[in-house]
Structure formats: structure tokens, C-alpha cells
Structure to design on (369 residues):
């Protein structure tokens, strides 16, 4: 079905003016000069202190984001920057760098840690193994919306406060809507259709691609368009919003709504710890309040942009189809080993993998009821 962010000079001038006074007023000058000088110096000192304090208190930050400037998630990040400057009354100013112009997608987190940028937004999955606890959120648990996924990732972080994120100050987290299958040239209606296909995947999504019987090819989202265009890959797992937000609908033909095994990719917004500690406590409180407000904004944006991506795909004439209940169950069963392997690996590394997965899954269920 076709659902196609010069006191000294002034002081000399005053003294010179005094010395040029008429001799008949010399006594008056001598008597009043100390008072004049005291008042002048106090005024100049006060002004200098105010200027110096204003300059010292203004904190300038840099923010690196891999999303292109036109993407809704980039626009939200930029509006966060402007809101911080507005509410701190210019005490904290954020210079925004979208589209990998400051650090590349895979470098964003380490760039914040080392101070290449003061803030950064990117995916946990771009550095597999670096964020083991947070990887649980990206498992194929059957996500249905970006709202649920965003609520889940923030609750998982608050619950476990993982060591892996303690080398930065976490502003907030968010996560995209259900990651489903998109292909070029060949529709995928059953598991057997995936055999021989090369699909872009990163981190957990790469494991999902392999479990489904296709070959994963790792690459960040900014590289996918050309890779599809040139036939380097046959498709990818990603949320519907990507078809419009990243224009991927122009280079794909089919969407398989594989919701039964849908994953999410979770995003971090983090700040360099030293830079955070340099911000006065009152401004920190303001920023943390803004952070809390921006979580639901991102969640809502993921939901609305998924719908826009769906509509965009229809306009382009794409085929969008679902899986019947029997086939959906097959896909869910096929990816179950990805979850089991995560639990096993976490247990071997000193974590309670089952606890992490159970909390993540039950939290998702709660938000999807």
C-alpha cells in the first residue's frame, strides 16, 4: 500500500584644570583640592570595580552539536543557549557550533572532557563500550515514541548515576523515537528479505542489524545520505524523523514499521566539569532549571518530527508498511539475544545487567501504557 545560546588620564586632566585656575582663587583651590580628589578617586575606583566585576563575571561557553543547524534538535539546542543568556542576564553567554563545525560527532564527548568545547550534544552510541549503563536504553525494547524514550533515558541516569558520566556535568538527556528499518531498492517484509543487505548501524543498532540477519556498517548520521546515494549501504535503522530532518527520504524507497523490536538512540548534553564549577551558584541554579524545562521540549520535538518525517515520506511516494502479528513476533524473537548478550556482558564487568535492563524495560512500559 502506498502511504507515500584611562583613570590616570582623566585624573591628570582634572589636576591640570585646577592648576590653571586664577591666582586669586588659589587658596580656595588648595583648601578644596583634597576633597575634590578624594571624591574623584572614589568615583573612579567604584566605576573601575563595577566594570572589572562585570567583565570577570561574564562567562563565555562554546557548545558543539553534530546536528545540522536546520534540524529541530539543533534549533532546540540553540534556543537553550539563548535562554541561558537571557535568564542569567548576560552573565553566561554560549556560542553555538552546529553541524560538526567545532568537533566531529564521535569526538563531542571527549571534546567536552578535554575542553575543546565547553558543552556538547551527541549520541552515546558513537563511542560503543564507553557508556555501558546508558547503552541499556538503546536496546530493542519496542519503543513507540520519542517521548517515552526521553523519559526513560533520564530516569535510567537518575537511578544509576553511572560512573561513566562523572567526568562531565550532565545537563540533560533525550532520545529519539522508534528506530525502524528503511531501505533503498528492496522492500523488507519478512526476516528472509534482510539476507545479504548492508545496513548502517552503530553501537546497539549494529547488533540489532546483525541479529536480524543483515550486515552492519558503522557510520555517523552525517555520512549516511551519500552512502545510500552511492550504494555503500542498502538501508539503515533510524526513526522516521530522519527522512525529513536529514533528508534521508530522498535516498530511500521503503519503510518497514518494525515496532516490535524498535530501539532508540539516546543523546547527551554535557558540560566540562571545570567550566561548570567556574559558574556562580545562582547561575548554576538557573541553568539547571532550564535543563529540566528542555527535557520535555526535546521529547515533544522527537514526536512531532517523527510525524513530519512520516508525512514527508508519503509526499515522496515511499512505501510504508507494517508487520503482521506473526512476523512482528519473529523479529522480536530474533533480537532477544541482543538483550541477553548485554546482560551477560554487564554481569561479567561487575554490573547487575538484569537489574539495569529490568528497570529500563519497566520504565518504558510505564510510559507506554
Amino acid at each position: 500500500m502506498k502511504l507515500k545560546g584611562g583613570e590616570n588620564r582623566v585624573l591628570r586632566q582634572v589636576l591640570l584644570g585646577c592648576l590653571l585656575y586664577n591666582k586669586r582663587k588659589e587658596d580656595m583651590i588648595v583648601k578644596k583640592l583634597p576633597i575634590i580628589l578624594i571624591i574623584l578617586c572614589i568615583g573612579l575606583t567604584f566605576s573601575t570595580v563595577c566594570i572589572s566585576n562585570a567583565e570577570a563575571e561574564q562567562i563565555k561557553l562554546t557548545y558543539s552539536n553534530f546536528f545540522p543547524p536546520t534540524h529541530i534538535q539543533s534549533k532546540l539546542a540553540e534556543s537553550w543557549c539563548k535562554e541561558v543568556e537571557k535568564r542569567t542576564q548576560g552573565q553566561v553567554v554560549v556560542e553555538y557550533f552546529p553541524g560538526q563545525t567545532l568537533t566531529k560527532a564521535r569526538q563531542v564527548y571527549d571534546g567536552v572532557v578535554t575542553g575543546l568545547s565547553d558543552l556538547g550534544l551527541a549520541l552515546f552510541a558513537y563511542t560503543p563500550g564507553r557508556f555501558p549503563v546508558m547503552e541499556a536504553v538503546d536496546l530493542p525494547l519496542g519503543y513507540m515514541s520519542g517521548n517515552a524514550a526521553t523519559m526513560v533515558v533520564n530516569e535510567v541516569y537518575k537511578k544509576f548515576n553511572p560512573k561513566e558520566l562523572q567526568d562531565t556535568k550532565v545537563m540533560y538527556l533525550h532520545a529519539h523515537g522508534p528506530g525502524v528499518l528503511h531501505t533503498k531498492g528492496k522492500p523488507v517484509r519478512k526476516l528472509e528479505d534482510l539476507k545479504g543487505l548492508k545496513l548502517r548501524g552503530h553501537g546497539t543498532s549494529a547488533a540489532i542489524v546483525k541479529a536480524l540477519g543483515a550486515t552492519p556498517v558503522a557510520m555517523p548520521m552525517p555520512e549516511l545520505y551519500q552512502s545510500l546515494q552511492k550504494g555503500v549501504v542498502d538501508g539503515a535503522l533510524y526513526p522516521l524523523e530522519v527522512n525529513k530532518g536529514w533528508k534521508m527520504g530522498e535516498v530511500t524507497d521503503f519503510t518497514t514499521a518494525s515496532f516490535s523490536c524498535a530501539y532508540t538512540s539516546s543523546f547527551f548534553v554535557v558540560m566540562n566539569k571545570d567550566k561548570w564549577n567556574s559558574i556562580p551558584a545562582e547561575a548554576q541554579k538557573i541553568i539547571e532549571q532550564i535543563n529540566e524545562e528542555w527535557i520535555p521540549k526535546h521529547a515533544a520535538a522527537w514526536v512531532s518530527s517523527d510525524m513530519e518525517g512520516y508525512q514527508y515520506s508519503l509526499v515522496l511516494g515511499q512505501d510504508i508498511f507494517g508487520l503482521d502479528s506473526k512476523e512482528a513476533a519473529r523479529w522480536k524473537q530474533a533480537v532477544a539475544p541482543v538483550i541477553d548478550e548485554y546482560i551477560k556482558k554487564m554481569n561479567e564487568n561487575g554490573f547487575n545487567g538484569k537489574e539495569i535492563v529490568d528497570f529500563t524495560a519497566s520504565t518504558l512500559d510505564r510510559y507506554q501504557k
Notes: The chain is about 50% helix and 15% strand. The CA atoms of residues 139 and 339 lie 6 Å apart. Residues 180-264+305-368 form a domain with the D-Maltodextrin-Binding Protein; domain 2 fold (CATH 3.40.190.170).
